Fold each of these.
Amino acid sequence: GAVVSQHPSRVICKSGTSVKIECRSLDFQATTMFWYRQFPKQSLMLMATSNEGSKATYEQGVEKDKFLINHASLTLSTLTVTSAHPEDSSFYICSARDQKTGDYGYTFGSGTRLTVV
Amino acid sequence: KNQVEQSPQSLIILEGKNCTLQCNYTVSPFSNLRWYKQDTGRGPVSLTIMTFSENTKSNGRYTATLDADTKQSSLHITASQLSDSASYICVVLQTGADGLTFGKGTHLIIQP
């Protein structure tokens, strides 16, 4: 089955530094990738949608200059949290949509726990 | 506005018992409905995906139903195991849309 690899699974960084999270589709090509943020005991909140080779579309309230998204290939998208602050501490999850299966092909990564100290 | 409502918010049952989780949605036009299992600190894992024409779909001890007329779905778990403790999220895709509409999930705890 479709597999999405997300790294790192956990990261601790100092306030003011930047952190990059990678999301790779291992056995399929992803035309669209999604980045979510999840707070404890809450559901996933969509941050942005990225299509390969074009700029990401950010949801209302999400700062595009703070959460930089790059989707340079059909198998890789990255989320960079710039100048991280403690309030950015959260669980970040990516999802990739399979180019071939379209509406049926949404696979999630295993998530990244970011802690900013 | 597209919405997905789940109930109950949380549920505690004894190991070996059955349970049913509910999902109501207003997403239109409808493409498909999914149930995901999310363990704490992990990403969601797909259990079932159902389209408009499918009424029931099973995956092991998990059985999902869909009534597209009333826009309701349920997830039935049979003979629960401790490993079933997780959040179960109902997610609906709108036809022609990229993104998914998520329910807030049901937090299920299985007690020995």
Amino acid sequence: KQEVTQIPAALSVPEGENLVLNCSFTDSAIYNLQWFRQDPGKGLTSLLLIQSSQREQTSGRLNASLDKSSGRSTLYIAASQPGDSATYLCAGTTSGTYKYIFGTGTRLKVLA
Amino acid sequence: DTEVTQTPKHLVMGMTNKKSLKCEQHMGHRAMYWYKQKAKKPPELMFVYSYEKLSINESVPSRFSPECPNSSLLNLHLHALQPEDSALYLCASSQEDRANVLTFGAGSRLTVL
């Protein structure tokens, strides 16, 4: 059974810091991988999608990479801002299915 | 229209009630999903519909009954729920059944008394 672990579980940093969030899958045969953010009590907003043929995606201050050999993904946030405070979730599929399995999440707080 | 709309936003029901959650999207997406999320936990997949047919049921109890009347609508019918079913229910859609970008609604917060 696929299990997804995110490290750290919680993070509190001053504004302006560069951050690295980690995501690790027990089954490294990841097909698609998405990173989401979730504000308290709200739905999920998709940040980046790394499809099966890709290894990396960038959007603004965000960069996500996927190492398929180890089943690990990293989300890099540059120059963090208080508006980045949220829970960040990674989710992946295997073997081209539509069954996204979510990670345990990282709760981020960026202090002004 | 790039949204997934869920109604109601909040629902309180007793254990003997019958109620429904609704989800609508007009992006032409052909896969639609129901997820359940408990507090401080990740979302857990319940059901997936692909081209209006149920393709995944994650061994969800029969007191939850999904329905996809057409390609834009997804319902979750609720009957004889338990207090432990209280959670945020999230609907999502994607362009094809190969799980491209998932677009989520804001969720329906369910409380079972």
